[in-house]
Design a protein that fits this description.
Elements: H1 2-9, H2 12-30, H3 37-46, H4 48-62, H5 70-86, H6 91-114, H7 120-139, H8 149-156, H9 169-184, H10 186-196, H11 198-203, H12 208-234, H13 245-255, H14 267-286, H15 291-328, H16 340-347
Helix pairs in contact: 1-15, 2-14, 3-14, 4-9, 4-12, 4-13, 4-14, 5-6, 5-7, 5-12, 6-7, 6-12, 8-12, 9-10, 13-14, 13-15
Length: 348
């Protein structure tokens, strides 16, 4: 009974929730200007694209895949959108074309992975350079910075008098959809099955390659949506937009408890990680700490979190095993106690 209670309480998501609330409390109490509407809206707007792209990235990592080209797809779609607007295309037509471009880029990644059996790490490392290179071919080193007022208003305005910027609204719409699909549908169970054991999933009748291909297409489409948000927020479309953003997205996913080897993870922990990193970056900025130092802090946070997670799992295994043996008398002092998760890993 005690072991079951510990198993429910001692989770990485709960630890992240406590840590995030502690950092937020410190920021509100000790950091000047943090709690102002203007600063909060800027902090939320600054994480809008990362929040969007991390949704399909979580699905891909759970399925034992990864997409390093997300920032390059964003940049390419931003260029396509800017060029179309510059040519006089209506906003709706440009948006549809950008979504199609994102879907094609994602399908290209997925086809190389599923049809040719290439590892997604290598494929997307190559397309990361290729997609951004296409953006440079289309626009060169120039930029497009003239957009309709309705579009730029979307990028800078907030919802009513609140601190919620319009740029975060696409994430607020899509996040519940992704969470429901992952946790409550047959598709979500198949994604977990693919990540847990692709061969076993294939023998069970799961169309593994089709799921992987669809996940890459979804990633491309969401990157296209993020490109529209990014372009509206900065009122600028150019080929070097969002350089390095893919590293932030992967950091958020892994910090949120998604297993890098696939098969495990929830969007709940990823949401906490997203809020935590956005808060840390904002606090560091208010403390006049630059972007390179912020990147160092975030990288250290990821490393420490992985070390802490591993250590906590070992400690939990010892404590839970001791409680089980003390309660049932079934295990002797020399028997190594196993937590539920460790037992599953042992069986694997």
């Amino acid at each position: 009974m005690k072991a079951a209670v510990i198993e429910r309480v001692a989770t990485w998501e709960n630890f992240l929730a406590v840590l995030t609330l502690a950092v937020l409390a410190y920021a509100v109490a000790a950091v000047p200007n943090f709690a102002t509407n203007f600063n909060l809206s800027q902090a939320i707007a600054g994480v809008s694209e990362r929040a969007l792209i991390v949704l399909p990235m979580v699905f891909l990592i759970i399925a034992r895949e990864i997409d390093l080209s997300v920032a390059s797809i964003l940049a390419l779609c931003s260029v396509v959108f800017g060029v179309l607007i510059q040519a006089g295309a209506p906003l709706g037509v440009a948006a549809v074309a950008v979504l199609a471009a994102g879907a094609l880029a994602g399908a290209f990644n997925g086809a190389l992975v599923t049809w040719f059996g290439l590892p997604s790490l290598v494929v997307t490392l190559g397309t990361m350079a290729m997609f951004r290179g296409i953006g440079y071919i289309i626009l060169g080193s120039d930029s497009v910075n003239e957009f309709p007022d309705a579009f730029t208003d979307f990028g800078i305005n907030t919802v009513g008098d609140s601190a919620i910027p319009w740029t975060i609204v696409p994430f607020l719409v899509l996040a519940p959809v992704f969470a429901i699909v992952l946790q409550w549908t047959a598709i979500g169970r198949r994604i977990y099955a693919v990540g847990g054991s692709p061969d076993a999933a294939r023998y069970a009748g799961v169309k593994v390659d089709r799921i992987r291909l669809c996940l890459f297409v979804v990633s491309g489409v969401v990157c296209a949506i993020a490109s529209i948000v990014f372009t509206a927020r900065l009122a600028n479309a150019r080929a070097d937009n969002a350089v390095g953003l893919e590293l932030d997205v992967i950091t958020i996913a892994l910090l949120g408890g998604v297993n890098v080897f696939g098969g495990r993870g929830k969007l709940t922990g990823v949401l906490y990680a997203l809020v935590l990193i956005a808060t840390l970056r904002n606090v560091l900025g208010l403390r006049q700490i630059g972007g390179d130092a912020q990147g160092t802090v975030i990288g250290l946070l990821l490393i420490l979190s992985l070390l802490l997670s591993t250590t906590a799992q070992r400690v939990y295994g010892v404590v839970a095993g001791w409680l089980r043996s003390a309660g049932s008398g079934g295990a002797g002092p020399g028997d190594p106690p196993l937590s539920t998760s460790n037992a599953r890993e042992r069986r694997k």
